[in-house]
């Protein structure tokens, strides 16, 4: 989808919003987005993460540590199709 990785520091070129990459989304229409989570405030409060089109994102700095993606939900190690 792109050359960004989880934990990379990025900045939105339109709004200036900055933070770390915490999620990726690719839609059936072809739009790719990245979720940017800003740092906590000086008082330790969390601020809301925001979604941006990947084309608007400027890479700032690589992640300090590699954060591997892992599957979530469902039984681990079972590749069987879900039953509904």
How would you describe this protein?
This protein is an all-beta fold and 84 residues long. 0% of the residues lie in helices and 33% in strands. It has a domain of 53 residues. Strands 4-3-2-1-5 form a five-stranded antiparallel beta sheet, with no helix packed on it. The mean pLDDT is 86.
> What would you call the shape?
globular
Tell me the Rg in angstroms. 15 Å
* Share in helix: under 10%
Q: Overall mean pLDDT score?
A: 86
Distance between the termini: 30 Å
Oligomer: single chain
Strand content bin: 25-35%
The beta-strand count equals 5
The major sheet is characterized as: 5 strands, antiparallel
What class do helices, strands and sheet pairing give? mainly beta
One letter per element, helices H and strands E, the order comes to EEEEE
Number of helices: 0
Low-confidence stretches: none
Strand order of the largest sheet: 4-3-2-1-5
Topology summary:
Blueprint: E1 9-12, E2 18-26, E3 32-37, E4 50-53, E5 57-61
Antiparallel strand pairs: 1-2, 1-5, 2-3, 3-4
Which descriptors apply to this entry?
single chain; about 80 residues; mainly beta; 5-stranded antiparallel beta sheet
